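Hi everyone, sorry if this is the wrong subforum. Our group has a chain we'd like a structural model of before ordering constructs, and none of us has done structure prediction before. Sequence below.
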Amino acid sequence: MTHPFASFLIAALAAGPAPAAGPSTMTSMMTEPLATHANFLAVDAVDARALLPAPPPPDSLVTRAELEVVLQLQAARTPEQVARCQQVEGEDIFLFGSDVLGPWFNAVQLPRTAAFFARVKEDFLAINRAAKSIYPRRRPPFADPRIKPCVEFSDSGAYPSGHGIQSSLWAGLLSAVFPEHAAGFAARAVETRRVKLISGVHYPTDLVAGQLLGEAVARELLKKPAVQKAVAELRAEAAPFLPKKST
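Answer:
Right subforum, don't worry. Here is the predicted structure as tokens:
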């Protein structure tokens, strides 16, 4: 039987090249303290076990093909890609959003936006940890010593990718605030997933699982009246910086 994510490998192989190696340490996404309560969305609001199939077994043909994808990308990565991998590793909502909207999208000019996404991140961190606990999967460097990541990493769960969840969640929420830029945010989320694959710390299926869960979390959040209210407030806060429509 073909694994549900096997077709993703074709896209990963066709996507082209990829960044050299870093130490094994705990990343900031896994060490930040969790909130003791949900701000907008309970940790079990999205059933990750029902949504995501189990990752391919370590000794499966799919996993071996995934490792080959990571090795091919590693062999082709450039210094510029390494720098981007290291930048995206610690990306926040403003790096993500400003790549689409421009430099005016920053915490200094948009304090309400900063506060809202800080609360969203607390909910995301809890969801991310809970999802990773369902299907423990070690990262590619622990399966094949030839893989040399170019970012810091830990022996924490690889599946689903936290950056995959987060980038798709951000794209969904920002698209609600700025619908005219939805395609740009979707493309920026694709870049985060691509960069994480290039980094050498995820299998392709980790990233597609992160996308699926992140999109589901965004949909659930946008059903909440408090989040809909925040979307309107964030749009109003950004209004002075948006291009004026001609009459």
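For your construct planning: The chain has one domain: 59-240. The domain at 59-240 is CATH 1.20.144.10 (Vanadium-containing Chloroperoxidase; domain 1).
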